[in-house]
Amino acid sequence: MLALKNITVSHGEEPVLAGANLDLSAGERLLVCGAAGSAKSTLLNVASGLIPRLVTPSHFAGEATLTGKPLSAMSKDTLFAEIGLVMQSVEEQSWDLGVEDLIAFPMENRSMPKAEIRVRVDALLKQFRLDALRGRRVLTLSGGERRMVAIAAAMALSPRLLILDEPTTGLDPAARQRLTEALADTLDSKRAVLVAEQDPAAFHSVAGTVRFISKGQVSEARSFETLMNEERPWREAGILPPHRTASSPKASAPGAEILGVRDVTTVLCRAHGQPVLNGAELMVRAGEVLGLIGRNGAGKTTLFQSILGLARISRGKITIEGIDATGWTVARRARRIAYLPQNMRRILFNMTLAEEVLFAITAGADPGEADRNRAQACLEKYGLGGLSETNPFALSVRQQALLGLACADAAGAAVAILDEPLLGRDLNGRAMLDLFIHSMTDKGRAVMLISHDLELIEEVATRTLILADGRIAFDGDSSEAWQSAAFRALGWPAPSFLPEGLVA
Amino acid sequence: MNSVHNVNFFIKLAFAFALMAIAWFLPDWRSSVPLAVATVALLAIFRVPGIRAYFKGAGLLVLLVMASWIANLMIQGETFVAAVETALAMAARLVTTTAVFFFVMETSTPGSILAASSAARLPPIATLVLSLTFGVIPMLRHDFERIADAQRARGMEIDDVSFPMRLRFALARGVPLLIQAVRMAHAISLSLSIYGFDLSRKRTTWREVGLLVEHRLPGIETP
C-alpha cells in the first residue's frame, strides 16, 4: 500500500534520513521505533505527504507512493482523505475548536450532509469513550484528552492509512488501552497503520511488525511477537526494551520536609461542582524522588498550579521549606519550586539557551561572570554546551526537555516538578534524566515526577502518590502502590517487568 | 458559559454594529456616557471572560483620549469645560465600540463562528476570515496570560513590582507572543490543510444553527 523508496531528507547540512526505505501492506500494523532525534517524525511526515508538500526541508529526494500513486501527484484533498495523521505535538494541528468541531472538521470541509456528520461524530465519541468531553473546547482539555480527540478526528473519514506519531504521549494506561481497542475495532484487512513510538509495549496488542530507525536508515520489518522478549535490538536502536529487568537506584533515607501540601481545596471546580482538589495532602522530603500518578484529568496539573500559586485555593495551605507560603507571589514560590512541563515551549521566553539558564540562576537580575560560567557549565552537563547562543525555539522537543533540566538544575530550587518528561523511554534521554535526579538528590533537593509511565515511576521513584477524586488516595512505597486499593481502582496494569502475580 | 455564548454570531455582530452606530450618532456626552456605562455593565452582567483585562485597557484608553483631546482642543482655543465635554463624548463612544466588539469576540468561539458562517453558506474565504478575526484575538490574549504565568513560574517577579516595571515586563512578553502567534498561524494553516479545508468548496456544519448555535452534540441513540 505505502512504499517509501530511497528517501533522503535534510533539515540542515546533514541528512536525517539517508536513503531510507519502507513498505507497508494493506492490513499491516507497523510500529517504527527509535531513539529521540532518530527522525521518526520526519519519516512519518514523508509517509503522510506532509514533507515535502507542506513542510519544505532543505533537501528532499526519493519517492513516496500510496497504492502505486506518487503522493506528490495526489491532490491535497485526496491525500488527506486517504491518510489520517496525528502528529507528535497535537498542538501543531489543532486550534481553539470544540471537541465535536475538531472531529467533524474533515467532514464539514468536504461538505458532508449534517445528519451524516452527526452520526459519525457521535459514533467516534462513543468508540473512543470521549462522551464526557462533549461540548468542551479542545484547548481546555488535558494533553491526553486532546490527543484522543485528535486521533478520533484522524479516523473521521475512515482513512486507508492511519499514521500516528507517539500517540501514547500523555495518555494514562486506561486511555492507551482505549486507544488500542478502538484501533483494533476499526482496522481491517484493507487499512494499514503506521505508528512511531518510544513505548512499544503499549502497542503489543495492535502492532504486528516492528522496524527500527537509526542513523537515517530504517531496518527490515520483524515480528513484534518475537521481539517482545528480546532486549538487544531495542537497546541497539537506543530505546528501553518493552520487557526488561527493573533497575532500582533508590535514594538514601529522606531528610526534612521541604514541601508540604496541607488539606488543599481549590476554587476551580469540575462541571458537577466538586473542587478539582478536595483536601489534597502530601509532603516532599529532602533527597526524595516522588512519583505522582492519576487518570487523565485527575487534577495533577491543578496540583502543581496550586503549589506554585497559579491556581487559587479556598482551603488549606502550602509550606515551602517549613514556611507557610500563603501570601507569597508565584515568582517567590517558583524560585524554590522548579516546574518543567512536558511542552517546554510553554515556559521559554528568552532569546538564547545561555539567557534561559542565566534567568533560572538570577531570576531576571543582572548576571555576573560567575553566573555566566555556571550557566555554561550546566548547559555542557546536559549536552547543550555547543548551543548556548541558539534560540530555544529552534531546538528539538528533546533538546528543549534537556534545557529544562539544565535550568532546573542551575536554579538550585528545593524541589523540581517534572510533568510527563519525554526523556523516560530513550536510553540517552533516560541517562540525562537519571543524571538530573542524582544531581538533585545528592544536594538534598527533591524531585516530583508526574507521569503515566509506571515503569519509570517504579524504577526512579522512592515513593509513589496516587491522585484520585481530588485527594491523595495512596502515599507509600512504589512496590506497595501497585497492590493498593487506589491503584486497583484505576484498573491499570502494573509495570510490565513485575512478576505476573502482582498485576492489579 | 451562559446562553448568550450560544446566540448566533451574526446576530451578535449585527447588534454590535447597531450599538456602535448609535454611539457615534449621539450628540454629546450626556447621552454617550450613559450608553458606554450601560454597555460596560452588560459585560459584567453576562460575565464575559477577560473582563478585568478589558477594564484595564478601557481605563487606559479613556485616560489617553481625554488627555490628548483636552490638550488639543485647548490649544485650538476651546475652554477647558468645553474641551472636557467633547473629550468625554469621544472617550464614551470609543468605550461603547470596544466594549461591544469585545463582547462579540469573547462570547463567540471559532467553532461557533465557523458553524454560523457555514450554515449561512458564506464563501469559505469569508468563513475563514471571520473565524480567524474574531477567534484568534481571544486565543492571543490567553497566550499573553499564559506567557505571564510562565514567567512567574520561572521566578520572574512581575506582581510585586511598581507599575512602570509591570509595564516593562508586559512589553517584554511581545517577543514570545510574536513567536507564539507565528506558531499558531502555522498550526491553523496545517490544520486547514490536513483536514481538507478548500477555498473552492462551501462547508457544512454538524451544529443546528438558528437564532442560537448548538454547542454540544447530544448522544444519538442507535437502534
Number of E strands of chain B: 0
**Biggest interface, which chains?**
A-B, 64 and 57 residues
**Helix/strand order of chain B:** HHHHHHHH
Structural class by helix and strand composition of chain A: alpha/beta
Number of strands of chain A: 21
Q: N- to C-terminal separation of chain A?
A: 40 Å
Helix residue percentage of chain A: 25-40%
CATH evolutionary superfamily of the largest domain in chain A = P-loop containing nucleotide triphosphate hydrolases
Rough outline of chain B? globular
Give the total of domains of chain A.
3
- Contiguous helical run count of chain A: 18
Count of the domains of chain B: 2
Q: On the 0-100 scale, what is the average pLDDT of chain B?
A: 88
Oligomeric state of the chains in view:
heterodimer
Taking Cα atoms only, what radius of gyration of chain A do you get, to the nearest Å?
23 Å
The CATH topology of the largest domain in chain A is given as Rossmann fold
SS content category of chain B: mainly alpha
Q: What is the top-level CATH class of the largest domain in chain A?
A: Alpha Beta
Task: Flag low-confidence runs of chain A.
Answer: 500-504
Protein described:
The complex is a heterodimer of chains A (504) and B (223). Chain A has 504 residues and is α/β, with parallel strands linked by helices. Chain A has 3 domains: 2-236, P-loop containing nucleotide triphosphate hydrolases (Rossmann fold); 252-336 and 414-504, Rossmann fold (3-Layer(aba) Sandwich); 344-412. Chain A has 18 helices and 21 strands. Chain A has helices at residues 40-47, 50-53, 76-82, 99-109, 114-127, 143-154, 173-186, 224-227, 232-236, 300-308, 330-334, 353-362, 369-381, 397-411, 427-442, 454-460, 478-481, 485-490, and strands spanning 2-10, 15-24, 29-33, 59-66, 69-70, 83-86, 161-165, 192-196, 209-214, 217-218, 222-223, 257-266, 278-285, 289-293, 313-320, 323-324, 337-340, 415-419, 446-450, 463-468, 471-476. Chain B is mainly alpha-helical and 223 residues long. Chain B has 2 domains: 3-106, no CATH class; 110-194, no CATH class. Chain B contains 8 helices and no strands. Chain B has helices at residues 9-25, 29-45, 51-75, 80-106, 110-119, 124-153, 163-172, 174-194. In chain B, helix 1 runs antiparallel to helix 4 and helix 2 (29-45) packs parallel to helix 4 (80-106). The longest helix of chain B has 30 residues, at 124-153. The model of chain B has no long low-confidence stretch (mean pLDDT 88). The chains are: A alpha/beta (504), B mainly alpha (223). The interface between A and B is large, with 64 and 57 residues.
